[in-house]
Amino acid sequence: MIIKDKMKLEQKCSPVSVKEGEEIGVRLLHELRQSENGIGLAANQIGINKRVCVINVKEPIVLINPKIVEHSKELFVFPEGCLSFPNDKIKTQRYTSVVIEADNHKDKLSFSAESKDINDAFECVCIQHEIDHLDGITMFDREFRQEPMVRGENAPLKIGRNQRVTLTKGSQTKTLKYKKAEPMLENGWTLTK
Ligand SMILES: [Zn+2]
After folding, report:
1. pLDDT digits over 74-106, tens only?
2. Any bridge partners for residue 71, and if so which?
């Protein structure tokens, strides 16, 4: 039985011993094989709030207490689904590459979407999706939105790409479309309200 209750999935999972993690891993792979098109599953999706997840894109991989220890700066947009939300398909933003450490793997595991094999991208996205589950994060929290989000001084401020904004830098002031203004924010210009 796969949990479909978003509230339940928003709870963080707790660390587990390798021995217990391996048993959970077997159950997860079994459950994953029963699913239609499933490529990954986290323990809390079957009601076990422990830090174990599995992916099965090119080969089955069990991860016990996994964590992302390195990741690219770059993000990429990818269509994602989730066995807990079978009717939803959304576009998310994920790191282009990640390095994972897990208690049941001696060596670090690297995943990168930068290859010609689309399965590498699936694997790279899937691993990030599953580790998120263990932290109570669902794919909806990673949804890619066309509208850029800019943090104002007090509250988050949402600005459209074509909306005109005013920027200042020292005594200079400019008013222009947000899409043109965005790169300038990295060069010392600030948005005024
Ligand atoms: Zn999922």
Report:
1. 999 999 999 999 999 999 999 999 999 999 999
2. 98
Q: Which of 9, 77, 5 is nearest to 43 (CA)?
A: 9
What's the CA-to-centroid distance between 4 and ligand 1, angstroms?
10
DSSP output for 49-69: -BSEEEEESSSEEEEES-EEE
Q: Is 186 a known active-site residue? A: no
Distance, CA of 19 to CA of 25 (rounded, Å): 10
Backbone angles phi, psi at 135, to 5 degrees: -95, 10
Task: Out of 31, 80, 123, 130, pick the active-site residue.
Answer: 130
Q: Using CA atoms in the order 67, 72, 73, 78, what is the torsion angle rounded to 10 degrees?
A: -90
Ligand 1 centre and the CA of 167: distance in Å?
40
- Say how far apart CA 3 and CA 9 lie, in whole Å: 8
Model confidence pTM above 0.85: no
Q: Residue holding tokens 């949804």?
A: 143
Helix (H) or strand (E) holding 91: strand 85-95
* Whole-number Cα distances in Å, 154 to 150, 180, 193: 11, 23, 11
CB-count burial class (<10 Å; 0-12, 13-18, 19+) for 61:
buried
What three-state secondary structure class fits 95?
Answer: strand
